[in-house]
Please model this.
Amino acid sequence: MTIRAVVWDVDDTLFDYTTADREGMRAHLMAEGLMAEYGGAERALDRWREVTDQQWARFSAGGITFEDQRRDRVRVFLGRPELTDVEVDDWFGRYLGHYEAAWSLFPDVLPALDVLAASHRHAVLSNSTIHVQDHKLRVLGVHDRFEAILCAAELGVSKPEAGAFLAACEALSLPPDQVAYVGDHPEIDGRGAADAGLLSVWIDRYGGTATVEAPAGRHRIATLAELPALLGADTRFGAQSTFG
Model:
């Protein structure tokens, strides 16, 4: 079946979230005078990532709202459960200023979107909120590249549930076997899309999970330069996947 559309994850697929988060938090901790409390930058950043992953898992499971996961991240990270919502929101707002200053696309994103622009339709499916991702895509200058932007908070279902992927297909009025999904997480994105019947493309930029078993229908690439050839599009950009 011909692939007619590509649905994209955002964070750590199009947008270099990991770098922006770490650099933003590093600058924020310096500005807040908190670096020494964590025994140095790397320990502080590792703790922030640990707390973020814990609270994001709670949000993805439907246990808390998007706003509450943000607030709980701050309270747990600072070890100050008594902070009010206003105090936490102010602290997180100051962090966001540093975080947004570090935003950038991965360098392979625009070339891939340019090559695929004429041959494939494009949409976004994220486990975030439309407010966050709509703003992010506008700041990064790629918002107009996508016909639809769908997020878990508004859909009421999140990846890896099949309903999230099928909602993206419905937004494009295409069956799953005519849609590819590109994401960075081997389970949430890779396995979830494959189980929902989409052509699943897992971008493993850092090669750190090469031993993960790939279910039927999932393809692993190391760079978006490999995507046009995989989709049967113009192959002037990129090379065949080294992962097979």
In short: Residues 234-244 have pLDDT under 50 and may be disordered. The longest strand covers residues 121-126. The first helix runs from residue 17 to 32. DSSP finds ten helices and six strands in the chain.
